[in-house]
Design goal:
heterodimer; A: 110 residues; mainly beta; 7-stranded mixed β-sheet; 4-stranded antiparallel β-sheet; 11 strands; 0% helix; 61% strand; B: 112 residues; 6-stranded mixed β-sheet; 10 strands; 51% strand
C-alpha cells in the first residue's frame, strides 16, 4: 500500500530565512504530486503539482518554488520567507483513481 | 476555480445521520467524486470516492445522482468525533494528468 511522508512536522522560521519541506511517497510509481497550503481559518489552496520528474506547474504566484528531483520526492522551497508564508503545508499524491495526503507541516514565520 | 459547491456549515445531532450535499454540475465523464474530511490541525482524511454508482464503506455512504451533477455524503450515525470540515472534490484526467482541486468545504458540527 502507498504511504506518504512529510517532514518536519512543525517548523518555526524567522522572516527572510530559507525554507525546505520534503515529501516522499512509498508503494507507488510515477505518481502525480501536489503541494497545498492552508492558511489559518481557510480552505486548502493548491500551490504546485507535478506529473513527473522535473515537471512542475505552479497554480498561484508566490514566494515559493517546488522541485521533483526523484520520482517519489517532492520538495517545497523558499529563498526568503515572508510572514504570509505561515500556514499548514500538505503534500499529496495521486495515481489513477487513488489519492491521499501526507500528515502536513505546520510552518510559523516569525 | 472550484469545481464543487458545498454549504459552508451544517449542524447534526449526535447519533443522527449527517447528510452533506455537494454540487458538481460541470463534472466530466472520467472524473471521480471524492470526499475527505479535515479535523483541526490534521491532514485531510480520505473518506470515500465514486464514479457513478453509490458506494458504501465502514465510514460513510456516497450517493451520486444519475446525472452525476451532485452527490451526498452520508454519515449514518454521527458522533462528536465526526466534527470536521468535509471536502467534496472532483478529480480526473486533464491533459493527461490527474488534478485534485479543493473547494471551501462544509464545516460539520455534531451537537451532543
Amino acid at each position: 500500500s502507498q504511504t506518504i511522508h512529510q517532514w518536519p512536522a512543525t517548523l518555526v522560521q524567522p522572516v527572510g530565512s530559507p525554507l525546505s519541506l520534503e515529501c516522499t511517497v512509498e508503494g507507488t510509481s510515477n505518481p502525480n504530486l501536489y503541494w497545498y497550503r492552508q492558511a489559518a481559518g481557510r480552505g486548502l489552496q493548491l500551490l504546485f503539482y507535478s506529473v513527473g520528474i522535473g515537471q512542475i506547474s505552479s497554480e498561484v504566484p508566490q514566494n515559493l518554488s517546488a522541485s521533483r528531483p526523484q520520482d517519489r520526492q517532492f520538495i517545497l522551497s523558499s529563498k526568503k520567507l515572508l510572514l504570509s508564508d505561515s500556514g499548514f503545508y500538505l503534500c499529496a499524491w495521486s495515481v489513477g483513481g487513488s489519492s491521499d495526503f501526507g500528515p502536513g507541516t505546520r510552518l510559523t514565520v516569525t | 476555480d472550484a469545481k464543487t459547491t458545498q454549504p459552508t456549515s451544517m449542524d447534526c445531532a449526535e447519533g443522527r445521520a449527517a447528510n452533506l450535499p455537494c454540487n458538481h454540475s460541470t463534472i466530466s465523464g472520467n472524473e471521480y467524486v471524492y470526499w475527505y474530511r479535515q479535523i483541526h490541525s490534521q491532514g485531510p482524511q480520505y473518506i470515500i470516492h465514486g464514479l457513478k454508482n453509490n458506494e458504501t464503506n465502514e465510514m460513510a455512504s456516497l450517493i451520486i445522482t444519475e446525472d452525476r451533477k451532485s452527490s451526498t455524503l452520508i454519515l449514518p450515525h454521527a458522533t462528536l468525533r465526526d466534527t470536521a470540515v468535509y471536502y467534496c472534490i472532483v478529480s480526473g484526467n486533464s491533459g493527461g494528468y490527474q488534478k485534485v482541486t479543493f473547494g471551501t468545504g462544509t464545516k460539520l458540527q455534531v451537537i451532543p
